[in-house]
Each structure stands twice: as C-alpha cells, then as structure tokens.
Amino acid sequence: MLPESAHVKSAYLGENGLLSKLKPGTVCIDSSTIDTNVSVQISSTIIKSGGIPLDAPVSGGVMGAEAATLTFMVGSRNSNEFENAKSILELMGSKVIHCGDLGAGQTVKICNNMLLGSAMIATAEAMALGTKLGVDPKLLATVINSSSGRCWSSEVSNPCPDVLPNAPSSRDYSGGFATKLMLKDMNLSLNAAKSQKLPLFLASLSTQIYGHACAENELANKDFSSVYKWINKK
C-alpha cells in the first residue's frame, strides 16, 4: 500500500522493480488508492509479465487495520482470481467485496473517499457551529449520532477534540489518515469526474478546503479531521 500513483509505478516498473523479478503466476495485490487509469495500465503490464493483478484499496483507517475490520474493494479479471485472493485479504479485513473488472476497486474507493471527505467537513462545521453557540460538544455528538445527521465522521472519528477518546482529534489529530492524502484522493475523484464531463460541486469545494488546510504545514500531516481546527481559525 503506497501513497500515490508515482510510488506504485516505481515499485512495479522502476529499476529493480517487482516486474523485473516476477515469477509467472505470482499474485500481485495493490491496496494503494491511486488513479484508476494508472492502476489498469500497471495491471496490464503485470499480465504481460505473467502475473495476476488485483486492485484492492481499503477503507477503515488505522483503527480498522489494528482490529482487522478493514473493507477491501477488489477489482480483478474474473471471479476465480478474486476468490483465490479473498482468503488472504480476509486475514486483514471483515469485508472483501468484488467490485468488478480491474480498476473497479479503485473507482469504488475514490467514490467512497470523495463522500467521506465532504462528510468530514460538514461534520466539522456542524460541531463548530454548535459549540460556538454554547452546546456541549459531547451532547451535540450524541444527538447527531441518534438522528439523521449520523455518519462515520460523527460517530467513529468525530473531529471535535475530547468527544471520542480514541479518535485522532482527541490526541491532537495524530495518526489516522493525513489531510494531504485526503486532498490527493479528492483530486483523484475530480480528475475522474472531469474525464466523464460530470460536475462535482460539493467535492470541488471540499477539495479547495483541504487544499487551504494543507497550505498550513501543521495540518497537512495531521489526520484529515483536523479540518475542524482550520475551520475554527477562520
């Protein structure tokens, strides 16, 4: 699992890369979140080298990895190759979902993170507004999580410090999923939408917000829920 498309390209195609020593029949599972077209291109090269590629990005974050409850979104050439790899992925995740052909796992992951990124900003704004108006943040989170506003960002990784003791926000946003990586994933979704001539108004604005947050070096490497901190500075 590597951060960006360039890193995956280098790992497979670079000097002394994996493909230079790949044995026929080797299963190559990539759990990075990268550009779908790049993933498909690398998979094609793996096939030409005799390997069996699968794109299998994950959702669940650090907490999911520690508890082996990750969700794997898998793209493969056929169901047989998916089933052969499934037993490996089940050691690390509680859900392993076949999303379709090669690249489909990346597409589903990009859509998921686009939604997650926007939902985190909306949650941060709601928590910031409520606390500014004098509502206890723990009470506010309890009501939200018992109502229609409930989401992963409010219930599992609430961006307001001290609401959830195990959330990154309660340890100065350390660990978790870096803001700069969320910005990367938001841009992946915008690039994919551009190729389909599909306007994404909310995702575009959310991407700008993460860009502004990353411009403050302090937040770029913090968990992306630190967007709450950026909002409160404005």
From TrEMBL:
Reaction equations catalysed: 3-hydroxy-2-methylpropanoate + NAD(+) = 2-methyl-3-oxopropanoate + NADH + H(+)
EC number per UniProt: 1.1.1.31
Gene Ontology biological process terms from the UniProt entry: L-valine catabolic process
Domain of life, per lineage: Eukaryota
Classification via InterPro entries: 6-PGluconate_DH-like_C_sf, 6PGD_dom2, 6PGDH_NADP-bd, HIBADH-like_NADP-bd, NAD(P)-bd_dom_sf
Statement: the UniProt record of this protein carries the keyword NAD: yes
Pathway terms, separated by semicolons: Amino-acid degradation; L-valine degradation
Domain 6-phosphogluconate dehydrogenase NADP-binding, first and last residues per copy: 1-100
Domain 3-hydroxyisobutyrate dehydrogenase-like NAD-binding residue range list: 103-230
UniProt KW keywords: Branched-chain amino acid catabolism, NAD, Oxidoreductase
GO annotations of cellular component type: mitochondrion
Pfam families: NAD_binding_11, NAD_binding_2
Protein's UniProt keywords contain Oxidoreductase: yes
EC category name: oxidoreductase
GO molecular function: 3-hydroxyisobutyrate dehydrogenase activity; NAD binding; NADP binding
Family of this protein: Belongs to the HIBADH-related family. 3-hydroxyisobutyrate dehydrogenase subfamily.
Protein's name in the database: 3-hydroxyisobutyrate dehydrogenase
Native source organism of the sequence: Smittium culicis
Upper classification of the organism: Eukaryota, Fungi, Fungi incertae sedis, Zoopagomycota, Kickxellomycotina
